[in-house]
Amino acid sequence: MGRPERHATIADVAALAGVSVGTASKALNGRGSLREETRTRVREAARQLSFQANAGARSLHSGRTYTVGMITTDTIGRFSIPVLMGAEDALGAGEMSVFLCDGRDDPIREQYYVKTLLSRRVDGIIVTGRRTEARMSIGPNLPVPVVYAFISSADPGDCSVVPDEAGGARKAVEHLLAVGRTRIAHVTGPEHHNSARVRAAAALERLAEAELEPVAPPLFGGWSEAWGRQAVGILLAGRAEFDAVFCGSDQIARGVSDALRAAGRRVPQDVALVGFDNWDVMTEGAQPPLTSVDMDLEGLGRSAAEMLLSAINGTASPGRHEHPCRLVVRESTIVPLA
Amino acid sequence: MGRPERHATIADVAALAGVSVGTASKALNGRGSLREETRTRVREAARQLSFQANAGARSLHSGRTYTVGMITTDTIGRFSIPVLMGAEDALGAGEMSVFLCDGRDDPIREQYYVKTLLSRRVDGIIVTGRRTEARMSIGPNLPVPVVYAFISSADPGDCSVVPDEAGGARKAVEHLLAVGRTRIAHVTGPEHHNSARVRAAAALERLAEAELEPVAPPLFGGWSEAWGRQAVGILLAGRAEFDAVFCGSDQIARGVSDALRAAGRRVPQDVALVGFDNWDVMTEGAQPPLTSVDMDLEGLGRSAAEMLLSAINGTASPGRHEHPCRLVVRESTIVPLA
DNA sequence: GAAACAAAGGAAAACGATTGCCGACAAGTT
DNA sequence: AACTTGTCGGCAATCGTTTTCCTTTGTTTC
C-alpha cells in the first residue's frame, strides 16, 4: 500500500553501499577508477532503493536539461498532432522530454508559455500551429534555438519547416493528367487562407505547363463537405464539361464525391477526384476511396525535431525548409479494369 | 544577431543591483524585510537582464517541480486529444507544466517513460489511452500520485476517471423513446471491445425498463462507416420494421445514414438516428446533422487533472469516477415542422 | 628496504536558488 | 549615556549531483 515516502537520493545509495556520494556517482555513471566489485555493489544498492537520479539537480551541473518545449500557437488539432508525434518520436530517441503548451491563439498565453519554458531551461523550442501561414516570431532573440514546424515564422532568420504545398498540388494535377484527364476543376478553401491560394496557384501553373486551362476559375469557399457539395452544384450549372476535380481538402473532396453520385456522375469513370491531406477518415469513408495528397506531417515533425537537435548542438539551419508531399493513389482516380 | 550567451543567474542580478544574492532573492520573491527602494532596484536589474529563475534549482530546494507527466498508453489520437487538452488547461491554471509521452502501445516504451518522468521528479502522472477498457496499473507503488483518465486502471486502489458510457447509452435510448420511437435497433463496434458491450447492454436495459425489446439483437461489427452501411443491409433484409437506430459511434451512424438514404428511407421521418462521440466532422458532415452522445472528454480531462492536483496536495480520491455524458440533439432525430 | 608509482575511493567545491540566522546601524526610551 | 527596539541586508547552510583534486593504500622496482 501507500507510496514510498520520498525519492531515494544518491546519499541513500552511497550509505547502503558503504561508500561516499562521490564514489556512488562515479559507480553509476561509469566514471573514475573503481573496483568492479564496488561498482556492482553500488548498482545493487541503487536497484534496491529504485534510485533515479534527480534530473533537475543533474542539469544544474551540466547546464543542459534534455527537455524541449513545444508550443502550439492555436489549439492542438488535426494537423498539429502528427507534427507533434513525429517530433516527440525524434526527440524521445535523443532522450529528450517534451513540454506541451497549448497557446489557444492567445498571444498572452503564448508569451507566458515562452517565459515558463525558459525558466525551465528547455534546450530548445518547437512552435507549431494549425495553418501553414507565416506568423510573427515568438521572440526576437531567445537564449535557446527555436524551430517552426508546419507553421512558419515571418522572420527569415528563423528556422521553419513547412510542407511543400505547391509541390503537392502539382503532383495532384500531374497525376490527373497522367490518367488522361484534361478538363480539370479546382475546388478549395477560403481565398483569404494561405494554403488555398498557394495550392490553387500551383495547380494552375502546372496546368499551364501542359498548355491547359482549368474548366473554370478556382472555386474558393470553405474547407467543409458542405462546400464541396455546393461547389458541385455550381460546376454542374456552368456550361463547361469536366472530367476531374482537384479539391483543396479531403473534406471538400468527400462532399464533391457525394454530390456527384447524387447527380448521377460516376467517380472515377465520369469524374476523377483528388483530395488533399490524406485524412484516413475521409479517404476511406468516401466511396470510392479517395486519392489524396499527403503532407507527411509526421515526417515533417521528425525533421523539424532533428533540426532543433542540430541547432542545440551548435549547427543552426536558418531559413525556410520545404518538406515534400507525396500522392497516395486510390480508387477515385483509377478506373477499375473491366 | 545571435542569442544571448547564457541565462542570467540571480548572482548577475545581485551584482548589477549591488546587493547580495540572498537579498536579491528576497527582493524578487517578496520575502524578508527590505527597503522598497532596494526591491525596485533589484527588480529593475532583473528586468534588464531578463532574468528568469532556474526552475530546476528552485525545485531542488522546494521539493516540488510543478510538472506532471502525461502518458498516453496507445498512440495519441482522437480521444486522447480532448482529454489531454482539458488536463493541460486545468494544470496550466495551477502553473504546472506537462510532459507529454506517447507510449504507442509498447509496454517497454511506457516503462521507460515512467522512469524518465520519475527522474524528472514530476509531482504526478496522468495516464490516458484510446479505449476505455481497464488496463494494468503502470506501476504498483510509485512515489507520486497517478490518475487514469478515459482509460481506467485494473487496480481498484488507483484513481480513474472514465466516461459514463452506460449512462450515455441510456440517454440516447431515452431520447428516442421521448420522440416516439419504439422499434429501435442498435448497431455498434466489435463485441470484444468493452465500450461496444457496455453501451449495448445499457441500451437494452433501458429498453427493457420501457418494456420494449430491440427490433433485432445488437449488431456488433466495427466502428467504421463501411460497417454502418453494411449493417443497414442486414437490417433491411431482416423482416422486422424499425423506426430508429442507435449507433455505437458517429462513424457507424454516418454510414447508416448514407445507406438509408440510398435505400430510400428518410432520416429522421422514417428512421431516427443517434450516434456516439459527438465528433463534429461526422455529425456535421452527415445529412441531416446527427444527434449524438458527447462524452465531454475535455471536461473529463479537466476533472482528472483536478483530482491529480488534490492528490498532490494530499487528498487522494481512489476508485473509479464516472464522468457524465450528455446528449446533443440535432436534426437526425427531430422531424422538421411542416 | 626505501623510493616511485598506480589504483581506489574520499573530501569538497561547484551548479542556482532559497531561507534562517545574525550583525550593523539608527532611532527611541529611561 | 546606556539600553532596548526595529529595520535592513549579508552570511552560510541547504537541496542532489557531478567532478576535480587529494589521500590512502598496496604494489613494483632497484
From TrEMBL, chains A, B:
SMART domains: HTH_LACI. Keywords: DNA-binding, Transcription, Transcription regulation. Residues 8-62 form the HTH lacI-type domain. It comes from the Bacteria. It holds the Pfam family Peripla_BP_3. InterPro entries: HTH_LacI, LacI/GalR-like_sensor, Lambda_DNA-bd_dom_sf, Peripla_BP_I. CDD domains: HTH_LacI, PBP1_sucrose_transcription_regulator. PANTHER family: HTH-TYPE TRANSCRIPTIONAL REGULATOR GALS, LACI-RELATED TRANSCRIPTIONAL REPRESSOR. This is LacI family transcriptional regulator. It comes from Microbispora amethystogenes.
